[in-house]
Specification:
The chain is of the alpha+beta class and about 475 residues long. The chain contains 9 helices and 24 strands. The chain folds into 3 domains: about 250 residues, tricorn interacting facor f3 domain (Immunoglobulin-like, Sandwich); about 90 residues, Orthogonal Bundle (Neutral Protease, domain 2), CATH 1.10.390.10; about 130 residues, Neutral Protease, domain 2 (Orthogonal Bundle). It has an 8-stranded mixed sheet with strand order 7-6-10-4-3-13-16-15. It has a 5-stranded mixed sheet with strand order 18-19-20-22-21, with helices on one face. The chain has a 3-stranded antiparallel sheet with strand order 5-9-8, with no helix packed on it. It is globular, with a radius of gyration of 23 Å.
Length: about 475
């Protein structure tokens, strides 16, 4: 940020058997209303899932007791009234015997909830949608939740967390611009809204004729029926909830491939003023270069969504095609596309580790400048280091523990990038770029922590880097020796 495949008959039969086992065993095992904790038949105990996933920065983000596998979002949006009518079908697996569980949902009105096809009780408690299924849900078995809801999603206004900027569901003259980092996905769909719980997504978005929907992943179809058109997208790779987007408006669409052969889909608002930046060409060149440097591109397509919005300077690494609130520079495009590896493919385990996203993407901007002959990464480091005196508040932020209200502070970006450039010089290019490629490959479609990255750096380099990382990531002063 700046500012399913073919299934064999055996697989189908296995899934059917699991579903039958779930419905019959759960019904027999739950000898009392599921909203009570306690032991059912056979001594099975059902308990509520936690209201949060355990992130100290956002205690109620995400949810305990289950792991989401897939979101199927069927949405209809009417721009003149700001009206959203939607059904979210969530496929998950219980990680404990659940008597009830939560989903994150900010605002909106819930009409009904069902679990495994049966009506379920639900209540609202702040951002928590608390769901009590008819029968307890057994650990390790799959279940599905269907939520029907409607309303006008609320924009998160002037948040001090995100540069004082509005974010989330941002209304535009012709539709909506949706950028949700860190916690705004739940303003428009019920979810386990934390990057530790990644899932695949399907979108079916119906809008008035003449408007286009840009979303993540592969565009499956576009069908007009009467006065509306439905756009369908699939993102098969696991995705953090904040990276999901559906941008609605008038767009010109460029479909093709990068010079390296990766599918590309670029949406541009024709109301934007002319720019010297060719977003499609830059996106293609950057995607291909990062594929050489960091390892193969992790998704089935790349691209961009460039919209004319009331939010200045907003860019976000929405998976497969980053969001830009206007035409951005090459450097910003390089930043957001680097996030496809660092942040999207490998996501943070908790928000405390955000430098693994932002420091890496900022350092990648330096690499792009080096690649294009603008300046070397060493020069970028020196500029960043020399421009801030030791007395600057910039140096007081611990990059690997920035705290919630400073998690997007410039130090997380710039000092994070400085850390990587000095690590590159310390262990040499061969080990350094092997480290980046190994980091991505070993955490593909998963999550990572600072401790895991520093341990991998020590393993690959064969050096004791404890003092180095302590100096750069955890010491609230300007480094002088390392």
């Amino acid at each position: 940020m700046r500012r399913r495949p073919f299934r064999s008959s055996f697989t189908v039969l296995t899934a059917v058997a699991a579903a039958l086992l779930l419905s019959t065993t759960s019904a027999q095992a739950s000898a009392q209303p599921a909203h009570h904790s306690g032991s059912g038949h056979g001594g099975i105990r059902f308990t509520p899932g936690a209201a949060g996933i355990g992130d100290s920065y956002f205690p109620l983000a995400g949810n305990g007791g289950f792991d989401v596998r897939h979101y199927n979002l069927d949405l209809a949006y009417d721009p003149p009234t700001h009206g959203l009518t939607a059904t979210a079908t969530i496929s998950a697996r219980a990680t404990q015997n659940l008597s009830r569980f939560d989903l994150d949902l900010q605002g909106l009105t819930v009409q009904s909830v069902s679990v495994n096809g049966l009506p379920a009780r639900f209540t609202r408690d702040g951002q928590e949608l608390v769901i009590t299924p008819r029968f307890g849900l057994l650990a390790r078995l799959p279940f599905s939740v269907k939520v029907r809801y409607s309303g006008s999603p609320e924009t998160i206004k002037g948040s001090p967390i995100v540069f004082g900027s509005d974010y989330g569901w941002i209304y535009t003259d012709d539709g909506v611009f949706v950028g949700c980092e860190p916690n705004a996905a739940s303003t428009w769909y019920p979810s386990s809204d934390h990057p530790a719980d990644k899932a695949s997504f399907s979108f079916a978005v119906t809008v008035p004729n003449g408007l286009t929907v840009a979303a993540n992943g592969r565009m499956v179809s576009q069908r007009t029926h009467g006065a509306t058109t439905t756009f369908r997208y699939d993102e098969a790779a696991p995705m953090a909830t904040y990276l999901a987007t559906i941008d609605i408006g008038r767009f010109t669409v460029e479909s093709g491939r990068t010079p390296g052969g990766i599918k590309s889909l670029v949406f541009t608002d024709p109301a934007l003023p002319a720019s010297t930046t060719d977003v499609t060409a830059v996106t293609g060149a950057v995607t291909d270069y990062w594929s050489q440097l960091f390892g193969r591109y992790p998704f089935d397509s790349t691209g961009a969504i460039v919209d004319n919005t009331p939010v200045a300077g907003f860019s976000l690494e929405t998976q497969t095609r980053p969001l830009y609130s206007a035409v951005r520079s090459e450097s910003t495009i390089a930043h957001e596309l680097a996030h496809q590896w660092f942040g999207d493919d490998v996501s943070v385990q908790t928000w405390q580790n955000i430098w693994l996203n932002e420091g890496f993407a900022t350092f990648s901007q330096w690499l792009w400048s080096e690649h294009t002959g603008v300046r070397t990464a060493v020069q970028s480091f020196q500029n960043a280091y020399d421009s801030r005196p030791a007395t600057a508040a910039f140096w007081t932020i611990k990059v690997a523990d920035p705290q919630r209200d400073s998690m997007f502070a410039s130090a997380v970006y710039q000092r994070g990038a400085m850390t990587l450039e000095q690590l590159r010089l310390k262990i040499g290019d061969a080990d350094f770029f092997q480290l980046l490629r190994t980091w991505v490959a070993s955490h593909r479609y998963g999550n990572g922590t600072t401790a895991e990255f520093t341990a991998l750096a020590q393993h690959i380099s064969g050096q004791d880097l404890t003092s180095f990382f302590t100096t750069w990531l955890l010491t609230p002063t300007k480094p002088t020796t390392w």
